[in-house]
Amino acid sequence: MADKGNPLVTLRAWHRPLVVLAGAMGVLCAVSLLGLLFDDRTLVNAPIWLKPLKFSVSVGTYALTLAWLLTHVRRARRAGWWFGTVFAVGIGVDVGLIVVQMIFRGHTLHFNKATPADVMINNVVAGGAYAAWLMTAAVVVLLLFQRLPNRALNSALRWGTGLALAGMGVAMLMFSPSPAQQAVLDAGGRPATFGAHSVGVEDGGPGLPVLGWSTVGGDMRIPHFAGIHGLQVLPLVAFGLLVLARRYPVLSADIVRRRLVRIAGAGYAGLLVLLTWQAQRGQSIVHPDFWTLAAGFALAAVVVAAGAVTVRPSAEILRSAR
Fold first, then answer.
1. How far apart are CA 62 and CA 95, in angstroms?
2. What residues pair up with 269 in beta bridges, in sequence order?
3. Residue 197 CB: number of other CB atoms within 10 A?
4. I need a surface site. Which of 50, 144, 155, 202 has the fewest CB within 10 A?
5. Residue 214: which region, alpha, beta or left (left: phi > 0; alpha: psi -120 to 50)?
6. pTM of the entire structure?
7. pLDDT digits over 123-176, tens only?
8. How far apart are CA 55 and CA 202, in angstroms?
């Protein structure tokens, strides 16, 4: 049985369907790497195997994190198991359809409304994504009622899942018509695509290597990516503080580490808002304007100042660290 006081629980206690999903993503990752080497087909100006590769890495990492996260659910564990299972099935089907649509049919996946088959596949994928969003929301609710001995980790899990939920929600902003698509709708037509990753430019333009994020316009994939992976970042912050506590006594108090985790969570939430605001203005991540830079520096200054105040070795903190 896993030690309730130890955040590192045995693999046997992890949510099995999510672990299976992560294993399948590992296989897809290997196949995608081979595809990049030996299949020279492209789709929307990118290697056709690139999106399956990115999804396999992202989904696999997320699934393992969620599987570990659910080991900390002590109350309503059966409900937590079902939430994780529905998530695994929904996202597993979505990734399978990505492979079918792109690799075997040679069609784009997201926003594609060109044929009835494309519409049907898009609807199924949307259903899987919404199911994953709802299941993540349900896990957030479950975590509100959990009490872990490590208060810093408790805060990290809550902040991380909340940020992941927000990151999934940001993705919904992609499913609104672009100006060109809206013009077709206003004229009584039906656009071949509905929605886009990019803002202010068409999808498929110049982008960052591997990631593909637009270098000439806004890209909603950036805040979406940042949000969903808050589920990994915040627990890593909690673990990092625990390691640093061996060298810095001021961090040995759980309450200090919890406050720092909360500051990191609030800062990360501010970053998510900043990235969303930047993308929605049609601004590339590599070409921030004055206001984006000013907001970024202000956010960093507030986070650093709050952290400095928290770790100040006052008499109260030193007493609680004994």
1. 13
2. none
3. 24
4. 144
5. beta
6. 0.79
7. 888 888 888 888 888 887 887 777 766 788 888 888 988 898 898 888 888 877
8. 22
